[in-house]
Amino acid sequence: MQLQEQIRNFILANLVVFDDEVEFSDDDNIFELGFVNSLFAMKLVTFIESEFQLTIESDEMEISNFNTINNIVNFIQSKSVYK
Amino acid sequence: MTITSPHSILEEVKQFAEEEIRPFAAEFEQQKALSRELIKKMGEKRYLAASFPAQYGGLQLHPLEYGNLVEEIGKGALSAAMLLTVTTGLVGETLIRWGSDYQKAQYVLPIARGEKVGAFALTEPGVGSGAKDVKTSYEKAGDKYRITGRKKWISFGEIADFFIVIASDPTTNAISAFLVDREQEGVHIRKIEGLLSCAASQLADIELHDVEVDADKLIGKEGMGFTGIANFALDQGRFNVAWMGVGLAQEALEVMVTYARKRNQSGQKIFNFQLIKGIIGDAVTNVHAARSLCREAARMRADNHPDAIVQTTMAKYFSSVVANKVASDAVQVLGANGCCNLYPVERLFREAKILEIIEGSSQIQQQIIAMHGANRYYQPKRITEV
Question: Where is the Acyl-CoA oxidase/dehydrogenase middle domain (chain B) (predicted)?
Fold first, then answer.
C-alpha cells in the first residue's frame, strides 16, 4: 500500500464528520476543513510512531507537518529511516 | 513492551497501602491533607515515579503493573492515588514525553525522588476540558513570556512546588504550556474549601499576575499546548483515574461482602437474602469488567496502539461509573451503618463521584467513545433503506 493511501485510510477511519460523500485531496488541510479534531492529532502521532517506528520530537510538533496527507507523507519520509 | 521490572512490586505496594495509607484515609480527609511523611515515603519507594523510565529515577513499570499499583494505592485512600494521577501522570509523564532535557532534570527528577510535587493548571472558572478556550493569556516580553489569568480546581495546588500552566496568546490564539514555579512573583495560591470529598487532594485556586517565565520554561513548541500537552496529559490522567475507580470499587466491594457475611438480620446473615446476593453479584461482575477494560488499555498503551487513547477513555468512563454504583450499593447493603463515617463506605460513596468529573466528565468520555463507534461500527451496506 502506498504511503499516501495508508495515511488517507487512517484519516478516513477517524473522521468526525459523517457524510458518506466526504472528499478531500492530498493537499487539503484536514484540520481547517473540520474533518478531524484535536484528539485525532494525538492518535496520528501514535499511529506514525508505531506504524513507521519513528519518534516524533517536540520540536517537530508543528501543525504544518500533519495537516495534509502530503505534509504527513513528507514528514515521515524526512525522518532518516525513510530517506 | 514486556513487563520489565526485576520483580513484581505488587505485594510490597499492597503491604504499604495496608500499613501506611488505609488506616489514615479518614484522617487525611479530616485534616484536608496527605501527610508530608506519606508523600516522602512514596517518593523514597519511587512510587511517584513508578511509570518513569529508569533514567528519570523511575521504576519503569509496565502499564499493567503501574495500573495495579494505582489500584492498590487507590484502595487505601483515593487522595493518595490522586497524587500519582497529578504529579506522576499529568505532570511527570507529560514532561518526559515533551519536555526539554533541562526541564526533565529540573522537574522530573525531583518528582521521582519525592522532593517536588507538580500540579497541572488547565481548568479555569469558566473552562473545563476545553483547553482551546482557556482565558489565561501569555505574551512575549523580550526573551521571556508574561502570563496572566486564573486557574481553578487545581489538585495539589495548595502544596505544589510548580505548575504546568496552559495559556493562550490572544493575538494568535495559540495555546501553549509553561512551567511556573510556586515561589515566583505574581503567583497567588488559595486553598479551596467546602468540597464534597477528596479534601486531601488539596485543591487550590491559582492566580497569575504578570508572571514572567524564561523561554526555557515553555514546554515543547508554542502552539502545542492543546493538541500536544493538554490532550496528552489528560490521556495520562484518564489512565490513572480508570485504575483509581477499580481500586475504589474493589474497596467498597470488600466492605460490602464482609459486612453481608457478618451482619445478622431476622436470624440469619444478610448475605443469605437473595436480593443482597443480587447486589453483590452485580458488583463483582462490574468490578471485574472495569478491571478488564483497564488491563486492555494498559496492554494497548504498552504497544503504543493508536486506539489506546479511546480504550483508556472507555476504561475511565466505565470504571468511574462502576465505582459510583458499587459504592452506592455498598452503602445500601450497610444500611444506616453505611451512612455513618464509622464505616468507610460513607467516604467511598462521596469520593466516587469525583471520578466521574475529573480528567473530563463522563459526558465528555461518552462523546469521544461515540465518535469512535460511529467510525468503527458504521456498515453502510448493511442497511440500504431508512
Answer: 119-211
Min Cα–Cα distance to chain B from A22, Å: 13
Rounded to 5 degrees, what are φ and ψ at B331?
-60, -40
Contact B313, B238 (CB under 8 A): yes
pLDDT tens digits, B255-281: 999 999 999 999 999 999 999 999 999
- Cβ of A39 within 8 Å of Cβ of B309? The answer is yes
Residue among B220, B221, B226 minimizing CB distance to A38:
B226
CATH number for A54: 1.10.1200.10
Alpha carbons B91 and B162: distance in angstroms, whole number = 10
pLDDT digits (tens, 9 = 90+) for B100-124: 999 999 999 999 999 999 999 999 9
User: Which residue among B226, B232, B304 sits closest to A49, beta carbon to beta carbon?
Assistant: B304
Please give the residue of chain B at the shortest CA–CA distance from A21. Answer: B380
Q: Which residues of A touch B (CB under 8 A)?
A: 10, 13-16, 18, 20, 38-39, 41-44, 46-47, 49-50, 58-59, 61-63
A61 closest CB neighbour out of B100, B224, B371: B224
Superfamily of domain B10-117: Acyl-CoA dehydrogenase/oxidase, N-terminal domain (1.10.540.10)
Domain range summary for chain B, segments of one domain joined by +: 10-117, 120-222, 226-373
Q: Which CATH class is domain B226-373?
A: mainly alpha
Question: pLDDT of B145-176, one tens digit each?
Answer: 999 999 999 999 999 999 999 999 999 999 99
What are B176's strand-pairing partners?
Answer: B167
Distance CA B288, CA B249 (A): 10
The CATH H-level superfamily of B120-222 is Butyryl-CoA Dehydrogenase, subunit A, domain 2 (2.40.110.10)
- Reported as a pLDDT band with limits 50, 70 and 90, residue B6 is very low
pLDDT in tens, B45-66: 999 999 999 999 999 999 999 9
The amino acid at A33: L
Grid cell of B66 as nine digits: 503501574
Average predicted confidence (pLDDT) for chain B = 95
Stated pTM of the model: 0.95
